[in-house]
Write a structure and sequence with these properties.
Largest sheet: 2 strands, parallel
Strand content: 15-25%
Order of helices and strands: HEHEH
Radius of gyration: 22 Å
Helix content: 40-55%
Shape: elongated
């Protein structure tokens, strides 16, 4: 019984301090989401602009691509361009 109460106290206090540690007004990490690159033609200038923006980013960041990168018929001809990004 005492072990159960002790475990509950530890869990509640851990959750309490964990939520307090997340309460700040600063941005620690930026997440960029993009997708539909296999179904919509995207100008190469867009990718160059995006790459330049990422090079100038001051914060830690992640880039997440949603969906397919290329349609099947363009995989071989365009894969080098994607590797260079």
């Amino acid at each position: 019984m005492q072990k159960g109460i002790l475990i509950q106290i530890i869990l509640v206090s851990t959750l309490f301090f964990k939520t307090l540690s997340q309460d700040k007004n600063e941005i620690d990490h930026v997440v960029y989401l993009f997708g539909n690159t296999s179904t919509k033609e995207i100008d190469h200038l867009y990718f160059q602009s995006f790459k330049d923006h990422l090079l100038n980013e001051k914060l830690h960041f992640s880039v997440i691509h949603l969906g397919d990168i290329l349609p099947l018929e363009k995989i071989e001809s365009e894969s080098l361009l994607i590797d260079q990004m």
